[in-house]
Amino acid sequence: MSETGYRKTLTHFLIEEQRRRQGEGVLTLLLADVMTACKTISDLVDHGELAGALGTMGTENVQGEVQKKLDVQSNELFKFCNTIGGHLAGMASEEEDDVVTVPAEYRGRYLLLFDPLDGSSNIDVNVSVGSIFSILRCPDGIEQPCAEDFLQPGVEQVCAGYTVYGPSTMLVITTGNGVNGFTMDRNVGEFFLTHPDMKIPEETKEFAINMSNQRHWEAPVKRYIDECVQGTDGPREKDFNMRWVASMVADVHRIMSRGGVFMYPICNKTREKGGKLRLMYEANPMSFIIEQAGGMSSTGRERIMDVQPDELHQRIPVILGSKAEVERIVSYHDEVD
Ligand code: AHM
Ligand code: MG
Q1: What is the ipTM of this complex?
Q2: 10-21 and 26-47 helices cross at what angle (nearest 10)?
Q3: What angle do CA 241, 265, 147 make, to 5 degrees?
Q4: 120 in a known ligand binding site
Q5: Predicted TM-score of the model (pTM)
Q6: Strand locations in the chain, DSSP E?
Q7: Mean of the pLDDT values across residues 101-124?
Q8: Res 2 pLDDT > 70
Q9: Where does ligand 1 bind, in terms of residues with CB under 6 Å?
Q10: Percent of the chain having pLDDT more than 70?
Q11: Is 121 annotated as ligand-binding?
Q12: Could you point out which of 78, 305, 330, 334 has its C-alpha 20 to 30 Å from the C-alpha of 87?
């Protein structure tokens, strides 16, 4: 907060970041468009059934998942808000089979990837959901990007962020210079800096995993969770707590705030598909944020942001959160591999 008692707006924060980078302001303007999409989705989520936003569409997305009305509306909003700004060469969405093209007259130099409404199984029960996005540079000399142009490892991300539509709507963002959190003032319609320079607490007593998959897990994950559950009677010599919202954005946001580890590991149920969560729309942007906040993100066997993607909708095992915990889980994998 400033001496006057006023908080910095997201726009002012981004302009300061742009000066630091000596950028031209393109990313700042692009993010303003992304924020318009997020603010509008926040409003839809707020109104729920009043906005006719709940329920299913009766359609399936490219992943073969039943689409909720809000999945479809959020996807349309992201595309609409980000097409004519002139900053994007193309978009890719978890809800779309192929790359979303940007008409030639509007084409810019960045690529935007997004999961417009993550955790959509929670929409109809009025539990937190979120949006996740990742920004890459369009490779030089590409007029109209195709899927291959998006297949860049997470280390190439220019920016990543998520918006959690919870009791309050919060945006958490990184441009590679730490992580900052903003809370939306619904009356003013603006995000204000409320959580500067977020760092993941190192000390933790919490884990987040879907325990119903326990019988399908691999030995290293079984061992880690088993040791946590043993509490003061086991090798960790402390009691752990478990939380699972089943909205990655909400679960990761809790870990950003309180520390801990979030896992959707490879298991017998997800092995055929390569994992449950999507590399380009979920794992990479969240990994960028987690690493920038001092945490760690791994498949259990390699750093997620180093993975060279093979396809746009690729799935991947995810283990992220407080560094020492993730290191421990990776070491358990090393011991058996
Ligand atoms: P979605 O993008 O279709 O909403 O699916 C991703 C979500 C994540 O937010 C969450 O961590 C996970 O799926 C929950 O999976 P499960 O229902 O198996 O617990
Ligand atoms: Mg998702």
Answers
A1: 0.94
A2: 160
A3: 135
A4: yes
A5: 0.95
A6: 56-60, 66-68, 88-93, 100-101, 110-118, 129-137, 159-165, 169-174, 179-185, 190-195, 206-208, 241-242, 261-264, 277-278, 296-298, 315-316, 318-321
A7: 94
A8: no
A9: 65, 94, 115, 118-121, 210, 246-248, 251, 264
A10: 98
A11: yes
A12: 305
